[in-house]
Specification:
The protein is of the alpha+beta class and about 130 residues long. Helices cover about 50% and strands about 20% of the residues. α2 links the parallel β2 and β3.
């Protein structure tokens, strides 16, 4: 299947699942759930859904158990709303890239790097550079 077609399939699934999450999942857990990526297999049989959760970190296990229980309902919703030969089997994954980025930023910010001691007016010399 072409890359453009796969992008359309992924975007359509993301839009439909986002609607369901807003209506059914967010009120149950009182947290912000974002679908960060959809990766559907080229044969349209499998779909990996990556989600990020803001707030409610202590209930992530409960959230994923809820999503697993609701999978048949999500699949049925997609079957009714999306015109595709196959409706893929959904697998949910926790996307922790935002937390990793935040942790790396705080680590970088906590480094105590002394200012460059280059005499004013001179450009710093790069390692291995000749003047």
């Amino acid at each position: 299947m072409s890359k453009d077609r796969m992008r359309v399939v992924n975007a359509t699934i993301q839009k439909e699942l986002s609607t369901l999450f807003t209506r059914e999942v967010t009120p149950e857990f009182e947290c912000l759930i974002t679908i960060t990526e959809i990766d559907t297999s080229p044969d349209l049989r499998l779909c990996n859904v990556y989600i990020s959760v803001l707030g409610g970190k202590n209930r992530i296990g409960d959230l994923f158990a809820f999503l697993e229980r609701k999978k048949p309902d999500f699949h049925e919703h997609l079957r009714k709303r999306v015109a595709m030969k196959f409706i893929p089997i959904i697998t949910f994954h926790l996307d922790q890239s935002a937390e990793r980025a935040s942790r790396l930023t705080s680590l970088i910010d906590s480094l105590h790097i002394p200012p460059d001691e280059t005499p004013s007016g001179e450009e710093p010399k790069l390692p291995g550079e000749r003047r």
